């Protein structure tokens, strides 16, 4: 079996970490023997924009639809291309165009990784983020000028979208420790968030076995610092999920390591796997970027392709490099990007 | 000189900590000898709502306008009154009705308080939050029903409001360490946040001496955990300021201790001083609530009234109780609410 993967290294360190993760996934496929990857490199992103005036070709989404999955590095070169162009022209366009409506991001205490928290506990959280609507909306605009100028940003929540995210989170919670927390801000945002609360109530009430709770985003941000081990599955809107997953990266010990999956749960179109970190242009090209976020992202792709055992193996290999202190600079190590990957692959082959 | 203070203990532990802070402020006034407080207790809040169907009297805002300042405990009893009623009927109504357009919240590593961070550094941040508009808007609504239902929440940013908050933050930064960070999410929210960035650019360019930076809310939430000591003045929208200040409370070691000021900078109407923490109905009435958030809030009121030296004195007294381990349960101590206050007042009198 061959998985055809649309591979978008993107910008900055994306170009360095994607090839590393490809090497790892190829090694795993070889070990397994039952499948292989075919990586088609699509050179889309800010360089492409600077040349063509768009982040990807006109028919980019059609091209992507022909693949099994999408493996993306990072997008953005804010010095040259304004963020809202680079992201809405690629990342967010793909998320929406291919109906990748669910974003799944684990935040888990890894052995060998130093959390900035004194007592992190053995936390193991999965944040399920609504990925297609909500606060990330291009509805709105600006009017008047000078001191009268105003800007309006409209957040749009549909019952279908909200229900889908919450139902996915409930299913996931049923398979894990049966705890689910919904995050809103219904005391401040008086339309969207009470609506989310209502939908959460409706959906979760069908899952008798789940222990459910709700928290406001401000409190939840604090709880992720004070008592992360008390949470399991956390479900939140597009914006709140975004914020909570960066906090998740921070308490793990590095945003450079956090993985993400943009899922088309119905498998009508390919899903997209991308790490939480950005393109980090400041360290690009130096060979010091941490490849573990991209590699862990590869685990999420393996899981989604049904190779969960290989995925587990990959996660232990990640932990092995950390415990062996084969770490990049961001984790206070001195290994290069390639050295980390080499050690990881060697471990996989020998174990 | 007599300061007439509209005193709203509110709900839950608000009723316990407000009288404690009043005792402290009275003691300071007596030490100073130059002024006194007159505390008028206004029994508004959820109990009032359950009796009268509204959180405060019809002419509540008019009543408040006659006072010098407002000292508030906490509002909310979510079991009995939905949050969006209790808050929009009192807290948010006062913030807006009395044009308290700037919310100021320090987050500072206090001696004697254990931060959950391994290496917090000696952080000393002030978050300036736009307090009157933005994401907290009652514009929006719901339409259709069943699976077609949608909810819309409109965030509204005006140049005046945005400018006012940023200008206040710039002034503050000029008086402190001359560093200012603006927090947005212009890569995801494509109207409001690029607008905020533009206004920030316009205002900050008038302050040559300031070292300025911008961060996205997701990254900033992570930075507050990873390197809080690198920040000084942080300016953000209503929602983002809300989130960052709870994170500020968490990294200090307790949200129970964080203070806040809702300022009417032009002093046209009274300002309102309220701690960040909520009404904590679960521990209300037990005499174990931490009074330090309310007391530190009293310091912000003293500062605003021009008694900055007394304010400094009060902050050292707070640190004294912490260093002496006279702490309430939330800080792993065994002192009661009253014992903490007694010790603090004794220290003030003797020093
Ligand atoms: C209670 C709530 C509406 C309020 C807010 O979000 O402003 C609170 O969280 C705060 O920070 O004062
Ligand atoms: C780059 C940005 C638009 C994106 C987001 O907010 O979704 C990023 O922060 C993420 O979390 O993937």
From TrEMBL, chains A, B:
Gene Ontology MF terms: tartrate dehydrogenase activity
PROSITE patterns: IDH_IMDH
Keyword Oxidoreductase appears in the UniProt entry: yes
Catalytic activity: (R)-malate + NAD(+) = pyruvate + CO2 + NADH
Keywords, in A-Z order: Manganese, Metal-binding, NAD, Oxidoreductase
Keyword Zinc-finger among UniProt keywords: no
Gene3D superfamilies: Isopropylmalate Dehydrogenase
InterPro entries: ICDH/IPMDH, IsoCit/isopropylmalate_DH_CS, IsoPropMal-DH-like_dom, TTC_DH
Co-factor(s): Mg(2+); Mn(2+)
EC numbers for this chain: 1.1.1.83
Domain Isopropylmalate dehydrogenase-like: start-end pairs: 4-344
Xref: Pfam families: Iso_dh
Family statement: Belongs to the isocitrate and isopropylmalate dehydrogenases family.
Protein name: D-malate dehydrogenase (decarboxylating)
Organism, scientific name: Lysinibacillus louembei
